[in-house]
Design brief:
The complex is a heterodimer. Chain A is mainly alpha-helical. Chain A has one domain: Four Helix Bundle (Hemerythrin (Met), subunit A). Helix content of chain A is 68%, strand content 10%. Chain B is an alpha/beta fold. Helices cover 51% and strands 19% of the residues of chain B. The mean pLDDT of chain B is 94. The chains are: A mainly alpha, B alpha/beta.
Chain lengths: 103, 323
């Protein structure tokens, strides 16, 4: 986490405790894939990832990931490079500042 | 009972699986594509056995290769799976997408990201509906089976009500119904119809000397021998009462009836049933026949046969007389 940045605390279902680390690691993988895809103009690959983020994030308790996924899917459909870059960065920032507590 | 989840995103599959486990569904199958789901269900090979453990399918609409709508159509084309509820999973709630899902046979949809409270409610509702439909179907099947049993019981009862309990041949009731039908038929077709009445000679004496059990056995053997004289499928002998038997012969002239009557008489002689130490059981037979017209009735014909029988008795018994 960047020094001085405000933490984002998200409370998720304790029944999902074993699934959360893997889920978040996969999202970092998504960021890498999307960065590689946007550099080569593969908007369809970004759309698919955005669509899957939209469908999964809220289920785990991360509504921000779903919202970001929706924005990425929309940006990919519009071939909007700037918008996609902005949301990939936002997702990375979110993951960096995220602190998960279980309840 | 199993639930099949068809979802290409592993992250979504994992969380659905966890939700379903928490909800108490122990047997959850996961498929990453429509093709894999069709394989698990058992529809990938023609004539294969389908997996009847699956009672509910959760299907993502957007799948690589064959999509959820196409998979739904394919699954619903199977006779067994036509009744299995499919709930679509979708992040796309556009009217067209949902309309296509319902057209393909989906019962409901859940929007992604999936929340457990919604998943529980939708699955509960779909399974309740399925169970109610299954109950109704089982009731219908049971009702159909009972109706068949009732029809069969009625058929047996009808048959029993037409059979003479002692001799096993048709009874008077059946003869009355059948002879009336045959008389009307002969009237319509303007064809000859004959009646034969048979009476066992000295039967009272038989009972007096040999006893009623022997008399009953005599009646049974006589009934059998009289039946043996009838060759055509529709011909039958009925017990008319006491020691009297009667037969109606459609499309039979008096000559033909006389031949049958004589065969009956001979058959009884050949039985060689003895009573009163040496007497042989014989029968007297009266025959009448006519082409029906408006001036005659079946009762008229039977009366004619009865008069011929009386003549046979008066003439010394053990003989056939034609009216």
């Amino acid at each position: 986490m960047a020094e001085g940045a405000e933490r984002i605390i998200v409370t998720v279902d304790s029944e999902l405790v074993d699934l959360i680390p893997g889920y978040l690691i996969n999202r970092r993988g998504d960021i890498e894939k999307m960065n590689a895809a946007i550099d080569s103009g593969e908007f369809e690959a970004i759309r698919v990832i955005g669509h899957q983020l939209k469908g999964s994030g809220g289920g785990y308790g991360f509504d921000f990931i779903s919202d970001t996924g929706m924005a990425l899917e929309r940006g990919a459909k519009e071939n909007n490079y700037e918008e996609i870059k902005k949301h990939i960065a936002a997702l990375g920032d979110y993951l960096n500042r995220l602190e998960t507590v279980y309840g | 009972m199993a639930i099949l989840v068809v979802e290409d995103s592993e992250d979504i599959s994992l969380i659905l699986n966890r939700f379903l486990e928490k909800m108490g569904y122990k047997n959850v199958m996961l498929a990453g594509s429509a093709e894999e789901a069709i394989d698990i269900i058992g529809l990938s090979k023609k004539g294969g056995t389908v997996n009847r453990d699956i009672e509910l399918i959760l299907m993502d609409i957007e799948l690589p290769g064959l999509d959820g709508i196409g998979a739904c159509q394919k699954i619903k084309s199977d006779q067994w799976f036509k009744e299995i509820p499919i709930i679509m999973l979708t992040a796309d709630t556009s009217a067209i997408s949902l309309e296509n899902a319902f057209k393909a046979g989906a019962i409901d949809y859940i929007t992604k990201p999936v929340k457990m409270v919604e998943l529980r409610a939708r699955i509960g509702s779909a399974l309740s509906l399925k169970q109610e439909m299954d109950r109704r179907k089982a009731s219908e099947i049971e009702l159909e089976a009972l109706t068949r049993q009732l029809k069969e019981a009625n058929r047996i009862l009808t048959n029993l009500s037409y059979i003479d309990g002692l001799t096993g041949v048709a009874n008077r009731r059946y003869f009355d119904d059948y002879s009336d039908q045959e008389w009307k038929k002969a009237f319509r077709e303007h064809s000859f119809i004959s009646v034969i009445i048979v009476d066992i000679d000295y039967f009272k004496q038989f009972n007096d000397t040999e006893g009623h059990p022997a008399g009953d056995e005599c009646l049974r053997r006589v009934a059998g021998a009289l039946s043996d004289a009838l060759r055509r499928p529709g011909d039958f002998i009925a017990r008319y009462g006491g020691e009297e038997f009667v037969s109606i012969l459609p499309n039979t002239t008096l000559d033909g009836a006389a031949i049958i009557g004589e065969t009956m008489r001979t058959n009884i002689c050949d039985l060689n049933i003895r009573f009163a130490q040496s007497k042989k059981t014989t029968v007297s037979i009266g025959i009448a026949g006519a082409i029906p017209d408006k001036s005659k009735t079946i009762q008229w014909l039977i009366s004619g046969a009865d008069r011929a029988l009386y003549t046979a008795k008066k003439s010394g018994k053990n003989q056939v007389k034609v009216f």
